């Protein structure tokens, strides 16, 4: 018991209580539900990469503090990956920083680049750490809402342009986008790049789903557009691409100035992390294209199992062009089942009703009413698990 009348949690963080994931995962456990809430795979990544981590650990590589910017093998593998995949060249010594997952990269970039009072524009719904990290940096978040249009959530470029003010410091761009599955097109990226150049904005790109794009969609790094190289902090991560989300190996690429700035904040957050895993991820990034193709094909098949099942169960499905999430609109289930289109109430009732856990997208919005009827399901699970979940959800409709 503290004697102070002052709240323990400071004002910057007061609005961020415990996350919805904790509440929903507890509910899943209590009800024995299938948890399609949190986005982590229920099978591990490639055996040879797991073995590479074991080998590094046994050989004593990375068991002590690795170098601050990351082990050279990994930094070189990151630059080789950017070159092979996108034709982007970076200097592994000056333009790469290894982080404790993309989460730390995002935090460090915002803490480094944002002054109190600066405005940071991010798409809404946004990944949940963005709001908290902008707040920790003393920035003001300015959400630009992605809205449903012809079966997908789309960016309104006029709305984005209108959101830029004299106080705007940076754009925080996530594509492929969690939770909507939207992948920005070349035209949209061109317009964003033109805006950033015209208004002299910095840009942080969260590209953790760069390898999870489906159908005709293509992931194009924003940094590859004219005028962007000097103003873009690009963030990647091994977690989603190699199905080792617990390893927490992420990275930043950018000009030496940008990387040095991000490193100034990063060194006082974790300093370094994930020593032996860094060596394993260096090997993972050098896997042949066949790995990435097979991974994408497997996830695409899972997407289709869940998307088809959700449609048959009565949801409106926004078939994602990327990531491993499906956003649905629950209103077609009817007012009673959908709790009048209240995603929170629906997700709290769903475990009891159907033995499935999902996440209400409203938690990812400042304009909660705009996100109210949308609910997110993860499909990075074994096909049998998805089929069982779909069977349970179909029983809802009766
Ligand atoms: C999972 C996720 C992250 C976090 O990545 P880690 O490497 O696990 O820290 C960041 N951004 C988005 C959009 C994500 O979905």
* Overall outline: globular
Give the distance, in angstroms, between the N- and C-terminal Cα atoms. 51 Å
Number of helices: 14
Report mean pLDDT, rounded to a whole number: 96
Bound compounds, each kind once, are:
pyridoxal-5'-phosphate
Number of strands: 15
How would you describe the oligomerization state of the chains in this entry?
single chain
Strand order of the largest sheet: 2-10-9-8-7-3-4
Q: What does this protein look like?
A:
The structure is a single chain. The chain is of the alpha/beta class and 398 residues long. It has 14 helices and 15 strands. It has a seven-stranded mixed β-sheet with strand order 2-10-9-8-7-3-4, with helices on both faces. The longest helix has 24 residues. The protein is globular and about 60 Å long. The site of pyridoxal-5'-phosphate has 14 residues, from helix 4 and helix 8. Pyridoxal-5'-phosphate binds next to helix 4 and helix 8.
